[in-house]
Amino acid sequence: MSNAKERKHAKKMRNQPTNVTLSSGFVADRGTKYHNGGGRHFHQAQKQEPFPGTSRQRQTKMTHHSPVDPDVKEQSSSKIMFKKKGGWKAGPEGMSQEIPKYITASTFAQARAAEISAMLKAVTQKSSNSLVFQTLPRHMRRRAMSHNVKRLPRRLREIAQKEAEKAVHQKKEHSKNKCHKARRCHKNRVLEFNRRQKKNIWLETHIWHAKRFHMVKKWGYCLGERPTVKSHRACYRAMTNRCLLQDLSYYCCLELKGKEEEILKALSPMCSIDAGLTFAAVHCLSGKCQGSVLLYRANRYPREMLGPVTFIWKSERTPSHTSESRQLWIWLHPMLKQDILEELKAACQCVEPIKPTICTPGPLLTTSEEKSQTELPDEKIGKKRKRKDDGENAKPVKKVIGDGTRDPHQPSSWISAATGIIISDLTMEMNRLRLIGPLSHSILTEALKAASVQTEGEDTEKTPHHWWIETCKNPDSVSLHHRQEAIFELLGGITSPAEIPSGTILGLTVGDPRINLPPKRSKVLPNPEKCQDNEKVRQLLLEGVPVDCAHSFIWNQAICKNVTENKISDQDLNRRRSELLVPGSQLVLGPQESKIPILLIQQPGKVTGDDRRGWGSGWDILFPKGWGMAFWIPFIYRGARVGGLKESVMHSQYKRSPDIPGDFPDCPAGVVFAEEQAKNLLEKYKRRPPAKRPNYVKLGTLAPFCCPWEQLAQEWESRVQAQEEPSVASSPSGEDSDSRRDKLPCAPTPENTDLWSDEGGTSLSSCSEPREAMDTECPARVGTEWVACQDATGSLLCVLRSRKWLKQLSTWCGPSSRDKRAARRASGSGEPAPTRAACLPLLERFPRALVWVSLALLRKGSPEPHSMICVPTEEDFLRLRQDQLYCGPQESKHSDPFKSEIRKQKERKKVEKRQNKQAPTEREGLAGGPPAAGHQALTLGLWSGPLPGVTSHCSRVLLGFVTQGDFSMAVGGGEALGFVSLTGLLDMLSTQPAAERGLVLLRAPASPQYRFARIAVEV
Amino acid sequence: MAENREPRGAVEAELDPVEYTLRKRLPHRLPRRPNDIYVNMKTDFKAQLARCQKLLDGGARGQNSCSEIYIHGLGLAINRAINIALQLQAGSFGSLQVAANTSTVELVDELEPETDAREPLTRIRNNSAIHIRVFRVAPK
User: Fold this and answer.
1) Which residues of A touch B108 (CB under 8 A)?
2) Torsion from C-alpha of B29, B31, B32, B37, nearest 10 degrees
3) pLDDT above 90 (res A611)
4) Is the pLDDT at A795 greater than 60, yes or no?
5) pLDDT digits over A954-1006, tens only?
6) Is B10 part of a structural domain of the chain?
7) Nearest CA in chain A to B123
8) Does B25 sit within 8 Å of A613, measured CB to CB?
9) Which chain A residues contact residue B26 at CB under 8 A?
């Protein structure tokens, strides 16, 4: 029985009379007491009878014990009661209820008297937690009883009075010594909010989210997980047909400043051209496009992944001098930040922290500076305020904007003396909102209006938007602003963001979005008249935004700071609106209107695969901190639906792209994520009673909560090797001569590695000119290091991300019978079954690798996360061919080797309990420890201890696991994403017949049913 | 236009699957009116036909019925669009008429570079499309 249950019972029995509660005088003859009082131990006591010496000894011991701690005594007695109860139920052998042979009248009477007095005591004092009026029978209850004592029966009034007083006292202690009204007043609320966001960072839209979302504390932030309204399907519809809005301000931004060559040189070992374009890609380097890259630890390319990031280079306004100081923003998930920041600092040799007060703005300022900073805008706003409530001159509390958790003295920028690169951490310095869906264009163009050019030269330096006036003096920048505005207006005529080149960046300066807020929430529709301007739209679609239009003032920290500080408060804005002569007319602030620099980044939707191209594309909008709600509400008022973390998982799943921390099992953040997930799932599993939860041991699911990737890859490696060895030794068949030939280079011999490095050299030689020098030396390094890797860290897991090989794999994964064109293409290009010889270099390089695959179910069934991907047998194919509606085989029931053990343990525990009862004080300390520990380890229905061979545990050989899987509303069927072992996949593909190549079986962890699915590698 | 065509010829000469990946972009489309139907090859033919029929018939009492619908088909789906229109006409006992228009749609193919040194390119490809207007005529 669990500890909690015992405790609960003890609590229940706390005020109950026990027949053992005797005053200390009785304890002396406890041995005899058992004769009279408790019938149960009669037996034992009788046994003791022949040895009066021992009983005497015990008695003396008891007398020594008794006066020490009455509390302990009571506890132990209650325990006795409890255990006895257990004994009654279970063991028939313990119930030797015989009639005593004799009764000593005086002790018997005394015992009964004690019992009676205890009972009386119990009756007079209330035992339960409930209040008095709650204990009344229903027909005696009256309205407002809790409030008014006089409504109670007179006999209970006294107790009720006491209770009421007590409640009042308690309440007073809890309250924040302020009345509700005071707590709600703005100043106190801000203080309270500031206090509450000291531990976890709040986004600027936190309050809005907290009212409508289930909030979770994750990654050091408070984030909305999912809306409280039922909206899974509505959010999907918003993504496909309308617009979904997400606050991604929790994404972290790292800024690198320095010379272009230096930055590229420092970053090039961290990424590889083999896995996609790098930081040096031409179109990204010019600042025209956003790029994405997978970061690795320096020079460890196939292994030790750090995580995926996106990056933006600041466009150069004058392309003549390129080697000047450049700015690079790297955007990444907060879970990856620590590792990547460390690695970046190491790569750029940035070790000297810059004093936070010198360079970084915002929350990093020391308190004295912050004061002066807050006073500056107050002078302007304060005047207006004083007109309204002149008496109040209290300095308003400053709302925390940005990162409230960071220690102000902790450095956030680092400089390198050698390379001159400055790395700074711009987390929470900007807001990032994401709009997904075809209506995002209309919403953007409706909600945002380009800032009006301001030419009247006012008193400079003192005016709030000084920077904008300065800019407007320059005719070049004015014309640039007009061009940006024109392109932005063109966006309104394009019906889907997927039509624009992926990763396009557009900079803009917009006016205050709160000014033309519609009075009511409405839904924008695309304007057909805007769609007419054909030639310009065509040019935009073909060539994207010109490089110079990507310029934005958001790159300038000083301007951002200025914009954040000079924001007109909502209160002021509303007051001005109310002062308008015609209510509801357009508010004109004129020169006082804020100008906000923003950056728009197109996010490509689904880019891999053939179907649903461009699904889930949208725009990211970056703007300075402090303006979060000012942009948030206008978007919502134009009909955007808001999604949380769950919706972003759904988005990545339907896009068939890996979800960021979860689907990177080879990067440290992914490992941490998997551990956390496993812990949560295990807890959830244990909360259910054993009969109401699946017995995973019987279902043959070894790891229902986490995926043992390493073991999987390792087992497949040894499995394939073992397959080849006996065939070489014994069989004379034709296929084996093939495998024998392949067997030779299987061991990592030196010439083999040389061969690889040569190959790498040739493939990389077509690379860009400035990288050439590095690349030529790189393969050699890789080659040598690879050998070292093989020996030392060969067990390290890696995921195959080489684009060349992934493409090869995707063609191997099979001509599907449905897609005839693909079949023709595959046959035309001469891609037969992947022979062993063809896969060999791949297996050589990645002996223990995983491949990211997507699976589409052939028939019914919706896969779950942690489902198993298995290899079908010949017989399964045969049955599938015979019966088109064949669902799939079933896993037979496994035996549970732990069940008997658990039962044994239970019995042992029971026996111990019984023994404890017989000799409570002596045994308790000794017997308490070990069985409890053993009990912890075993859970009914879960495999305990080290896992046996995972691949061959079930009737079908295990190939991999699903990480995301659900019914996909986009496809209209089950869809899953996951990883399979590369070795296993190649082995399976080489043996499968051409018609059924790429078919696998999927089985959910809690089901014996296998279902057919088609595997695909999408590049 | 002209400057778009110019690099195109040059591109085709140097196109290499090792250096570029082809990604087809979505066709440019205009905002949809409720009576526009875009025919595709993925949805079941019968479902698409029923959808058109429903639009023409309107609700239970014939309210919200459109007097005309436009069926658009692009490329491979031209056949199917024609098929749907003719089926509608055949099933209407002469109360429906069709009028077809053809056009050419410019499609954009994006060529993503595989190496850092190359710029992404776009190619324009033409494809034919059909727009069939199905409308009611007063039965004589």
Assistant:
1) 499, 541-542
2) -10
3) no
4) no
5) 888 889 999 999 898 888 888 999 999 888 888 888 888 777 788 899 999 98
6) no
7) A542
8) yes
9) 496, 498-499, 613-614
Contact yes or no for A966/A972 (Cβ under 8 A):
no
* DSSP summary character for residue A453: P
Name every chain B residue with its beta carbon within 8 A of the beta carbon of A602: none
**Residue in this structure with the two tokens 């909560």, named with its chain if needed:** A705
Q: Is the pTM above the cut of 0.80? A: no
Minimum distance, in Å, between the CA of residue A320 and any CA atom of chain B: 19
Considering only CB atoms, B116 lies closest to which of A541, A767, A803, namely A767
Beta-carbon contacts of A981 under 8 Å, excluding residues fewer than 6 positions away, are A712, A713, A716, A848, A849, A850, A851, A959, A960
Does B123 fall in a domain? yes
Task: Give which of A189, A241, A249, A260 is closest to A224, Cα–Cα.
Answer: A249
In this complex, the residue of A526, A607, A766 whose CB is nearest that of residue B115 is A766
Residue A387 has pLDDT above 60, yes or no: no
Q: Which of B4, B116, B117 sits opposite A542 (nearest CB)?
A: B4
Confidence at residue A404, expressed as pLDDT on a 0 to 100 scale: 66
pLDDT, tens only, A126-174 = 666 777 778 888 888 888 888 888 888 888 888 888 888 877 766 655 5
Higher pLDDT, A114 or A269: A114
Question: Domain tally for chain B?
Answer: 1
> Which residues from B are below 8 Å from A501, CB to CB?
110, 120, 122
Query: Are the beta carbons of B124 and A527 separated by less than 8 Å?
Result: no
Q: Which residues contact A688 (CB under 8 A, 6 or more apart)?
A: none
CB neighbour list of residue B33: distance below 8 Å, 6 or more residues apart? B70
Q: Cβ contact (<8 Å) for A541 and B113?
A: no
A539 membership: H or E segment, kind and range: helix A534-543
Question: pLDDT, tens digit, for every residue of A294-346?
Answer: 888 888 888 888 889 999 988 876 555 555 688 889 999 999 888 888 888 88
Count CB pairs under 8 A between chains A and B. 72
Q: How high is the pLDDT of residue A414?
A: 84
**Kind plus residue range of the DSSP H or E element containing B99:** strand B96-113
- The reply to whether A771 touches chain B by the CB within 8 Å rule is yes
* Residue A636: both structure tokens together: 């919502």
Q: Is B3 among the domain residues? A: no
User: What's the confidence (pLDDT) of residue A2?
Assistant: 57
A526 touches B at CB < 8 Å: yes
Say if residue A86's pLDDT is above 70.
no
CATH number for position B99: 3.30.110.20
CA distance A441 to chain B (A): 12
d(CA A149, CA A161): 7
CB < 8 Å to A1019, chain B: 21
Domain of B49, in residue numbers: 21-136
B117·A282 Cβ contact <8 A: yes
SS3 for A456? Answer: coil
- Pairing type for strands A305-313 and A505-511 reads unpaired
Name the residue facing A614 among B19, B26, B106 (closest C-beta): B26
Does B48 reside within a domain?
A: yes
